[in-house]
Structure formats: structure tokens, C-alpha cells
Model the fold of this input.
Amino acid sequence: MKILVTGGAGYIGSHTCLELLEAGHELTAIDDLSNSSKESLRRVEKLTGKKVDLRCFSLLDGEQTLAVLKEVQPDAVIHFAAMKAVGESVEYPLRYYKNNVSGTINLIEAMQTAGCKNLVYSSSCTVYGEPTKLPLTEDHPTATAESPYGWTKLMTEQIMRDVHVSDSSMNFTLLRYFNPVGAHASGDIGEDPNGIPNNLLPFITQVAVGKLAKLNIFGDDYETRDGTCIRDYIHVVDLAKAHVSAVEQVVAKQPGVVTYNLGTGTGSTVLEMVHAFEAASGKKLPYEIAPRRAGDIVAAYADPTKAKEELGWATTLDVNDMCRDSWRWQSQNPNGYEAS
Ligand code: WQD
Done:
């Protein structure tokens, strides 16, 4: 099929482009390169021997967005393009609402005008807030978001539900990710955040490679087995493969609006991830216990049953694979894509 991938040069986007190419699909990617590098897709092309047609602009340019949709006529769109730093969204809310919400509105309008009916959307488990019941199923109530970033995910999901009510020919598959980590086994593509990483694994790998001095663990006095927060870390390659299943299903079955939690179903604490990384990398990781981080929830992990039953998808890679592959990427690319 012909698939348009917004944010295709990004961390999850580039891993998904690789799996889509391996599955035989034809790709056009849109990326404004604000938090990504063309190099990621160059490496995807080298790894697969196939091409990605990359167009570099922001979805805030509605005219260019419509022009590409009309020209390419994709069977489906996978929509990753968004800003995703929780803390930054608190500091610059309007930037987040404009980029994430207005950009999505432009995309959906262009799809309707160009006649593209199928969207797979990069959402997040952050929409659940602090879970009242674990493991998290898709019918768990969504909460008031902890940050403007979280609100943009809640709002864009609602926009898609409302668009489907007004135009039932539009199909939206909402993928609620848990915590994506890891890298392709080649070590050639991986997570390359701008500036100091917000997220745990890229921070750990930058400490291990010597770019950062030590890890601050944000609180060890939570009501968990070792006092540190629990998350459902999912290997980015498993996550990418879920997108292949989801995009093939949305075109084949025209399911309307469907939601899937994408996690392993297993939670790991921060300290467990630190120890797993030390075992996988052979590196001792210096860390200190620091005060709790505002907005952190205590525990979240998925019930992945629905994705298994309806998408025929399940994770195959575990925390050791995630840590090993994260380390291979970072040790082979100490400065991420910068050097290239
Ligand atoms: C995980 C755990 C921290 C860094 C967020 C977004 C989510 C998605 C992933 C975009 C927490 C602890 C972290 C550090 C630490 N974003 N930690 N020291 O907050 O679960 O999820 O990022 O797609 O939508 O909400 O991920 O990796 O930031 O934190 O102790 O230097 O690691 O307190 O318990 P989070 P995270």
C-alpha cells in the first residue's frame, strides 16, 4: 500500500518506516526536522535497500499538506508528528497546542479534501492519568491531563471521534503507547533527543556513554516494591510492528474509531531498569536519589489483550533486549545523528 508517515524521521517514525518498507509498503514521509534528522531515514534506506520520499515541512503549512495528500493519494496516514516533552509543554503551552492540535486539524482536513479515509494515530497512555485500576484496559476512563502535552493527546483523540461522527467514512485507529525504549538491532537508528533527555532510557544511555555525569532518580518513596515508579517499557521495534498491523487493518476493515493499548503488560521500576541496563551494557551506572518529579504517576502498565486479539500483535522483546539495543545505538553513535 501507499502510506504517508508524518514525523517519519523521528524516533518511532523512523523505526516504523523501516518495518513498513520490510513489509513491502511504499512510503512518503513528512517531517519538519524540528526534533529529528534526515540521517535517520537515510540509514533506514541503507538498512532496507528501499527508498523513502521525504518532504520537509510542518503540518502547520496547510497548503503544502493538502498538496502532498492530493499528489500522493495514500491509502492511509500514520501520524507521529508532534512535540512530546512534558516539561517543555508546561513552559510553552501555546507552542504545543498549535503544533500538536492545529497540525492534526490541518492533516485531517487535507485527508478529507484529498479523499484519504484512514488514519493511525500516535497517542499515549498519558491520557489515563493516574490509573484507578491496573493493568490498564482501553475502557479505563481518561483523566484530566497532567500537562499541556497530555491535553493535546486527549484533544486530538476527541477531534478524531467527533470527525468520525460527522463523517463515518473516516477511520481512526488510536494507538496509546506506554513507554517506548530501545533501538533497531543494527544500532544504526535510535532515540536522539534534542538537549538534555527528559525520558529515562536516553538519560541512562547518555550517562553510560559519558555525556552526562549521573542519573537522578526522581523519588524512591513511592508505594511500590522498591519505592521507585513503575512503567510499562515497550521495545520500539515491537511498537513499530504494531503500526504495520494497525495500518493494514484500518485499510482492510475500515473499523471506524478503535483504540489499542500498546505495552508489554509487565511493569518495571526505575531501579529495575537501571540494574537491567547495567547487566546488559556491563557499565556501572552512577545515580542519586532526587526529589519526586511533578506530574509523575506511581504506576502504569498495559493489558495488551485487545491488540493481541484484534491486531494479532504481541510484544516479543523484553527489558534486557531494550537495554542491550539502547546501549548498542548509543555506544555506536555517542552524538546521535549529529556527526553525520
Ligand atoms: C519514566 C520514569 C520518572 C528520567 C513520558 C510521557 C509519555 C511519553 C514517554 C512521549 C518516571 C523516571 C525519568 C530521569 C527518572 N512521552 N525518571 N530520572 O514520564 O513515564 O512518560 O514520556 O511520547 O507520554 O508522559 O517517561 O521516561 O520521563 O519517566 O527517575 O532522569 O523514570 O520519574 O518514573 P514517563 P519518563
